[in-house]
């Protein structure tokens, strides 16, 4: 398709959803475009680099009349380029497919990670799309959360939660049809974190809109995720002690060391999470000395307060009455993340104070307190219980993504892959496991349309000793288009000596097992594992 069609006239009769009204549309030809996208930013596809591509950038702004919103959808349409180095037909570089990409945090899309995903898709010939849900590119919700003090902008939450996603799929297909003269043969979605939650929304609320969805580390249970972000800070507030990060880190490192070989391989990765929780007692570290980076390397003693907050974080949130209500992060995960994790503290020579994760802090201050000046740093246990319940009651229909009845998605031949790093520092991998179990309890023959992968050694979306599952998007496409269901999926793991080893991750409930008799080649295979109900 030639760039001569990249002008607003081509899209002058573009249909929009009945609830939407066009504000503006620009069509910008882009030539000699080059990009190099690392694998981690593509999430589930390999790194890619290219030069001299051409595409048509359609940036469309629309509103829902009466809601005072302004939502931007950006679509990149591959076009003919005489100097293109794509493997597709240089006179028609589009691969006849749509790839939508998700957001992260409070950003629905149109930010750096979204653009990296679009760059990767463009290099493989996809028409690719993202939406900002009318929220812009701010990393926090402070600009758009409130209409005024005491009044949450519910339309913005609705757009973030689901409405903009349905619009994006509908409008994107119409843009493609106007430019190429036909719609996409197949449509895919790829995202992680907020993007993973968006993928789940599409499966739950818009079955049939996308043929295949890859959802990484999805924030499916929104209320519980917000509670989880704040839970360690509440534990420290209730105890009246805030440990140095070096204490928390030392306990985590020792847990990894002691639990490493539970899976039969010493590699610096905890795969047997439940076994580790049974085998390792963080209180056994109390009284040990540790060199503390926050104090210039001075040796301090690990406190009971440090062991207590680590233990509570691993085992998950409890109500005031002691009843466990949600899952924790797992041994091996980085709880402090150099001062930005959910067990972070701000420290001086005199001691430490809490440092709440901004995702949970913003949520409770802006949406539950409904105030731009609120401060939940000193939140109590009882108040956290109340605020999580208020989140469910007031905003559940807007943001929760825990509908497990995917029967209609299955009936429409949709295919869904979720994946979650086991050392995720923000969202418990147990939550995604729980979601998969609950779907399996409701929809028969779940593996015919939905598969879930746990990735030992992978942090939140990327990072850690394990690389990303870079073949999952390709495996999803083979599942959708050829009926080849995904089985083992390759990952590269960095071992303790710094070398890289090829391994696999497995469709739940299987786990990867090492064949000790293996000399070279495929030493890791998938084996069935007993997974108790969560």
UniProtKB/TrEMBL annotation:
At the top level of its lineage, which domain of life is listed?
A: Eukaryota
EC numbers on record: 3.1.1.-
Supply the Gene3D superfamilies for this chain: alpha/beta hydrolase
What is the residue range of the signal peptide feature? none
Catalytic EC class: hydrolase
- Identify the InterPro entries for this entry: AB_hydrolase_fold, Tannase/feruloyl_esterase
Q: Which UniProt keywords apply?
A: Calcium, Disulfide bond, Hydrolase, Metal-binding, Serine esterase, Signal
Q: Which family does it belong to?
A: Belongs to the tannase family.
Official protein name in the record: Carboxylic ester hydrolase
Species of the source: Podospora pseudopauciseta
């Amino acid at each position: 398709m030639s760039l001569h069609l990249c002008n607003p006239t081509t899209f002058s009769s573009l249909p929009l959803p009945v609830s939407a009204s066009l504000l503006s549309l620009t069509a910008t030809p882009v030539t000699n475009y080059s990009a190099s996208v690392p694998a981690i930013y593509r999430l589930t596809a390999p790194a890619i680099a290219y030069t001299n591509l051409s595409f048509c950038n359609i940036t469309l702004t629309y509103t829902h009349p009466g809601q005072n919103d302004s939502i931007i959808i950006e679509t990149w349409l591959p076009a003919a380029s005489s100097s293109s180095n794509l493997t597709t037909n240089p006179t028609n570089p589009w691969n006849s497919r749509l790839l939508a990409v998700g957001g992260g945090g409070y950003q629905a899309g149109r930010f750096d990670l979204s653009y990296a995903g679009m760059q990767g898709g463009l290099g493989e010939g996809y028409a690719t799309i993202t939406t900002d849900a009318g929220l812009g590119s701010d990393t926090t919700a402070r600009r758009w959360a409130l209409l005024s003090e005491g009044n949450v902008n519910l339309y913005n939450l609705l757009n973030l939660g689901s409405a903009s996603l349905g619009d994006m799929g509908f409008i994107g297909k119409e843009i493609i049809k106007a430019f190429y003269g036909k719609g996409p043969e197949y449509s895919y979605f790829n995202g992680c974190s907020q993007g993973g939650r968006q993928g789940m929304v599409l499966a739950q609320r818009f079955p049939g809109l996308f043929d295949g969805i890859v959802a990484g580390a999805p924030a499916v249970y929104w209320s519980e995720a917000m509670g989880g972000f704040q839970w360690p800070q509440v534990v420290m507030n209730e105890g009246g002690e805030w440990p140095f990060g070096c204490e928390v880190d030392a306990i985590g490192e020792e847990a990894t060391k002691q639990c490493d070989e539970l899976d039969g391989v010493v590699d610096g990765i905890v795969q047997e999470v439940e076994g580790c929780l049974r085998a390792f007692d963080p209180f056994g570290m109390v009284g040990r000395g540790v060199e503390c980076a926050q104090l210039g390397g001075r040796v301090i003693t690990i406190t009971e307060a440090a062991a207590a907050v680590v233990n509570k974080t691993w085992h998950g949130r409890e109500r005031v009455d002691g009843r466990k209500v949600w899952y924790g992060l797992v041994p091996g995960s980085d709880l402090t993340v150099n001062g930005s994790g959910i067990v972070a503290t701000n420290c001086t020579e005199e001691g430490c104070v809490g440092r709440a994760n901004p995702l949970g802090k913003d949520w409770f201050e802006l949406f539950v307190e409904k105030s731009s000046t609120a401060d939940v740093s000193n939140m109590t246990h009882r108040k956290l219980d109340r605020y999580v319940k208020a989140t469910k009651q007031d905003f559940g229909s807007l943001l929760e993504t825990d509908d497990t009845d995917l029967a209609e998605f299955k009936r429409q031949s949709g295919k869904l892959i979720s994946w979650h790093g086991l050392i995720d520092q923000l969202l418990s991998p147990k939550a995604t496991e729980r979601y998969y179990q609950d779907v399996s309890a409701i929809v028969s023959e779940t593996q015919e349309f939905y598969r879930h992968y746990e990735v030992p050694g992978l942090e939140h979306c990327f990072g850690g000793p394990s690389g990303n599952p870079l073949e999952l998007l390709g495996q999803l496409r083979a599942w959708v288009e050829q009926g080849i269901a995904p089985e083992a999926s390759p990952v590269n793991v960095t071992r303790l000596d710094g070398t890289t080893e090829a391994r696999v991750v497995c469709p739940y409930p299987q786990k990867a097992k090492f064949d000790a008799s293996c000399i070279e080649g495929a030493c890791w295979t998938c084996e069935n594992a007993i997974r108790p109900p969560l």
